[in-house]
Amino acid sequence: MGFFGTQFQVDKKVGVISGASQGLGLALAKQLFAKGASLIIISRSETKLKNAKKQILSCTKVHEDQFVEYLAADLIDYQAASKIIPLLDRLGVDKPDFLFCCAGAAHPQYFLNMTNKDLDFGMDTNYKTCVNLVELLAKRMIDTTPPEDGGILSDLKITAGIGNNRPIRHIALFSSEVAFYNFLGYAEYGPAKAAIKAFGDSIRHELKPYCVKVHVVFPGNFESEGYEVENRLKPAACKDIEGSSKPISVDRCAELVIKGIDHGELYIHTDLIGWVLNSFSLGFNPRNWGLFQVIVALVGAIVGGLIDFFHQVLIQGYFRKEGGFIRNNNIKQDENKSD
Ligand SMILES: NC(=O)c1ccc[n+]([C@@H]2O[C@H](COP(=O)([O-])OP(=O)(O)OC[C@H]3O[C@@H](n4cnc5c(N)ncnc54)[C@H](OP(=O)(O)O)[C@@H]3O)[C@@H](O)[C@H]2O)c1
């Protein structure tokens, strides 16, 4: 609960969660259902969604009329994603109370071994899945009723999670700590997660007067099916830069995300390293323990270059040890190149 009380009312609310057939999306769905929310979950695989629905419904219901519905759609495809609109109409959901864009995946490897398809995969799976869904639902979620008291007071109240005669709705976009510091191995993933941060910053400004609060989540490592795949693919040099941080459990990660929204945080971190990396690139970012962040930002300004230099030395070591980074001695050409 935040300074102004609970800022994320879940009981009897309806939410849409993408990427909820497994991993963090599913963990969030279970916890939100157990708090009284009805849910529409989205991913590509109907088999996984059916199984996820069963798992969510096995959590104790708070109300008899709580429901879980699913939409099997590849969210990269706008037409497929648009099917969320008739589904909401059929369910009689005028305005979803929250939207969590959790679909995403990281397939790290050396850039020189990536094809244009790998690069597209990163941007499409992480950025496009998110933007398509927000474009479809944000217009439906906004509240155009004039506030009881206009002006700066109303603005401050929305910031504090109080909408007066208007309920606050929430959009949470799932980025990553690499949005603050990207490094070798994440050329297909990091740019998409940085784009999500930038997208969130822009729509946060625009949607707030309409009582829609936009949060961007920057999770650190957590255990999930996706994390397992990512770790299997990760080059050794990439693992080394990342360090030996132990992933937290997916349930703990979901708890921290919900707590962050409840506290009114606009940038949500799930471990200390994420908060430190955010502080190192503080700039115009929304603050979270702002005074401490300014101090850490000063430290970052001094040691950031040194850390990057150290990583460069480490990468040189791998370059020598592995005899270069190209795996197939044949750099694949960008298939879309026009000349
Ligand atoms: N795990 C970590 O350590 C970590 C760290 C930082 C950030 N993150 C981010 O946190 C989010 C959740 O991660 P996770 O580890 O829980 O992922 P995950 O286990 O791989 O789950 C990803 C979910 O996204 C769905 N999905 C993938 N592509 C899709 C598409 N084109 N259209 C619709 N749904 C799609 C998948 O279901 P289908 O296969 O059925 O489509 C699945 O439900 C991701 O955005 C990830 O990038 C993860």
UniProtKB/TrEMBL annotation:
Transmembrane portions of the chain: 289-310
Role noted for this protein: Catalyzes the reduction of 3'-oxosphinganine (3-ketodihydrosphingosine/KDS) to sphinganine (dihydrosphingosine/DHS), the second step of de novo sphingolipid biosynthesis.
GO biological-process terms attached to the record: 3-keto-sphinganine metabolic process; sphingolipid biosynthetic process
Name of this protein: 3-ketodihydrosphingosine reductase TSC10
Protein EC: 1.1.1.102
Top-level taxon in the UniProt lineage: Eukaryota
Record localization: Endoplasmic reticulum
Keyword Nucleotide-binding: no
Catalytic activity, reaction form: sphinganine + NADP(+) = 3-oxosphinganine + NADPH + H(+)
GO molecular function, one term: 3-dehydrosphinganine reductase activity
Species of the source: Brettanomyces naardenensis (Yeast)
Family designation: Belongs to the short-chain dehydrogenases/reductases (SDR) family.
Lineage, highest ranks first: Eukaryota, Fungi, Dikarya, Ascomycota, Saccharomycotina
A Gene Ontology cellular-component term: endoplasmic reticulum membrane
Keywords for the protein's UniProt record, in alphabetical order: Endoplasmic reticulum, Lipid metabolism, Membrane, NADP, Oxidoreductase, Sphingolipid metabolism, Transmembrane, Transmembrane helix
UniProt keyword annotation of Oxidoreductase present: yes
UniProt pathway annotation: Sphingolipid metabolism; Lipid metabolism; sphingolipid metabolism
